[in-house]
Amino acid sequence: MTERLNVVGLLSGGKDSCYNLCHCAALGHNIVALATLAPPEGKDELDSYMYQTVGHDAIHLIAQAMDLPLYRTTIKGKALNQTSTYGDRLPNGKSSTASSSTLDHDETEDLFTLLKQVKQAHPEVNAVSVGAILSNYQRVRVEHVALRTGMELLPLSFLWQRDQAELLDEMCAADMQSILIKVAGAGLEREDLGKTLKQMRNKLHKLNRLYGAHICGEGGEYETSTLDCPLFKRKIILDKTIAVTHGEESSDGVFYMKIEGAHLEDKTEQVEVSASTITIPDRFDKYSVRSRPQERLESISTELSNKQPLKHIRQETFVTKNGPWCAISGIQGSAVEGNDIQTEIRSAFQSLEGTLRSQGFSFEHLAHLNVYLSNQRHFAALNMVYKTLFGVDPPSRACVAINLDGEQSNILIDAYAYGNRLAKSAQSIPRKALHVQGRSYWAAANIGPYSQAVEIGGRISIAGQIGLDPITLQLVQDPFDQTILALQHARRIFKAILEDHRVLKKQGWIEGSICWMNDVKQLPFARQLWHNQSQETSDDDDEGDAWEDSWLGSELNAKDIPTLFVTLAEDGLPRNASVEWQLSAQSGDQDTDEADDDDDDSEESSGLRLTQGADRFGTCSVEWTCISKNHSASQFGIAYLNNSDEQSKTDSTTIAALLQTHGASVRLFYTNDAVVDQLRESLGQLPVEPNAAITYIPVSGLFDRNASQIDAAIVWQTA
């Protein structure tokens, strides 16, 4: 059941802001007021990075048509901060280069003034409707303003990341009478001004096929003004308009329509806005439906061979660096008698901060953290501390509960950071974070102050995903549906953060995955679902699924990607979820020119190298697989280990070399004390001290990529 929210609608007058309000109403939310930002008096159009100003002449009529109060503020600021980030990565202006000093005069702060005015008049308002489809620039700034202390408006962005062709068709089907009020080249002409979406539908699809133009105008191809929609109690009739040339006159120039006269008329029929009149997307997209295992596989059960409690290994802090990368392991809190859990968690992050500082890094440089708690009861306390440590674009994160020695510490952290000594500040290092905090149909907003994904140095870390309904942020009930939905979230996040790369025709690829489970009964279904991610497409499938058909990477098969299935003790996952998917990926930034050659389908042209092997290490048999980039040391791999009574005469040179690799982040999962004892003994016999940052993780069960049970696993990432 969706919580009923009191919504203020950010209104540009165009199709997107009006249609998003339709979705708010269809989901049962109460629209209280509308708010808009207008250009200074005497100006029709501003080249604003943030706001649509053309068509502001009729904004008051839209509010009257909806019978809602309208709040308006003049745009006074400029787009001073034109980056993808708005604000500081550390709270309270602690960033190495604080950007907050420029915020007072940025055009984004005009939105704060506007929403503050609305809150004063309507203190019951607790949500804001945002019509963003693809614009991270707009979404980031609206969320930054809406979620400030004292404002606390939940962003509702139900058009976010929607397929534009589907969205346009839905708008037409919902009788959205939106007309083109501005055109800016890309095959659109002066004569297209004033035409409705239905009249323009075929042409917009054609321009998309010919030139890659955005069907919904997300590339600035056109803007609209809405004359009627299901929320309108009356409709707008235009009496007088004139076409204006913006800039120099040319056949492919920029033209906009100025509305000089309009009035309202009663509608002959009023349509109730509901889920039956507005298209609500299905929870699972076409790809998830197609890749779902045909059988639920509930009848298959797997008995865990080891049910004995595992010994607690003393974790030691270790740091290793390779170029700009820094891997850290073994960070713990101080479990002092009398201290509450927040104090202990805070002490762990103080230790992490000190370790980073000793290497010339800070929290701003963190790309990803793995946090292990002794119990998920501490999850809320973790988030309370966490949100005081990070500002905008925080690192991605995965958090699970494992068998820690609570008397020693209730929290264990490993992390990796990326820095460049030549950079003036951490914020000047190229980095892309996807931190979506609003509700949508797309994927779940994070239930903690961390990013869904961070891309830096060519690597993409994707936060652990559980099966939350993105509309309500509640777990879906069926554990198998949770498994599918969590993986769908991870796939959509990967696609969204790759958006710029896909424009440049760079594919990106998944280099490894971990599937955390709270019950071994989930294993057969999860394994089959993962294997189905690389199934062949049937001839009947839509062209729109082209990216999804090869989302793992054009040359990759899910069965070959390093994958580990891990079972935890009961309540090992946040919200007592059934499954959490954690993926690591590469953006393809380092691809060579040959890799972009569409005529060369060889493995070399893909830029990927899949390496597999078998060996022995101590008393363990070892099978390993890793994916790396050609001409690069960067790789992700997993070694699957099983214990035996036979002592190896020669240790695995692969494992030995791995553990001596600078910049390697290593997690050693184990279910068997004998295995981990042998590994630690073998490590002590290496001719050179290990250079890898090793974290020891005791778990209930481990399974390789084919779902065969194993005793231990080594998961490594190198820079």
UniProtKB/TrEMBL annotation:
Keywords attached to this entry: ATP-binding, Hydrolase, Ligase, Nucleotide-binding
Segments passing through the bilayer: none
Biological-process GO terms, alphabetical: protein histidyl modification to diphthamide
Keyword ATP-binding: yes
Pathway: Protein modification; peptidyl-diphthamide biosynthesis
GO molecular function, a single term: ATP binding
Enzyme Commission numbers on file: 6.3.1.14
Disordered: region residues: 581-610
Annotated ranges, domain Diphthamide synthase: 104-243
Top class in the EC scheme: ligase
Reactions mediated catalytically: diphthine-[translation elongation factor 2] + NH4(+) + ATP = diphthamide-[translation elongation factor 2] + AMP + diphosphate + H(+)
Biased composition (Acidic residues): 590-604
InterPro entries: Diphthami_syn_dom, DPH6/MJ0570, Rossmann-like_a/b/a_fold, RutC-like_sf, YjgF/YER057c/UK114
Protein name: Diphthine--ammonia ligase
Species of origin: Meira miltonrushii
